[in-house]
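Minutes, project check-in
Item: structure for the 156-residue chain
Input as provided by the requester:
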Amino acid sequence: MAGKKVKDIVAAELEGFLSENGYELYNVEFVKEGRDWFLRVYIDLPDPDEYVGTEDCEKVSRYLSEVLDEKDPIAQNYYLEVSSPGMDRALIRDEDYDRYAGREVEVSLYSAINGRKKLEGTLKGLEGDEIVITDDSGEIRLPREKVAKTKLAVIF
């Protein structure tokens, strides 16, 4: 296991536990901030209309902490954080674009297209290498390599 990336190690250790308990792995980050390392694990539920609660995060955190303490696969000292991706979650994987088609999204671009670096609209999905949204002006096709971030819009 020493040759694997931390993300791969964590994903492998969590796979069975998450599946048995009705969760999905949304994302894993292992980042250095200042002098400290953080292992951030984001869990989700299969139903896009249900949300992860603090009890869910505690359950996964206890399990993962125990497994990582026992196997000790990460050389650095780190802080473990388990959380939900949140209501304004970033769409990371291709499946996220399918899962949240029909929802309102906010798209940030690396450089302006037609004078705009931020767009809002209804997500249609991915088509090839393009993210497709619609707004009042119609359909907008955005080359994926020009998109810095796509996240769900929070509407109250």
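Outcome recorded: The chain has a mean pLDDT of 93.
No further action items on this chain.
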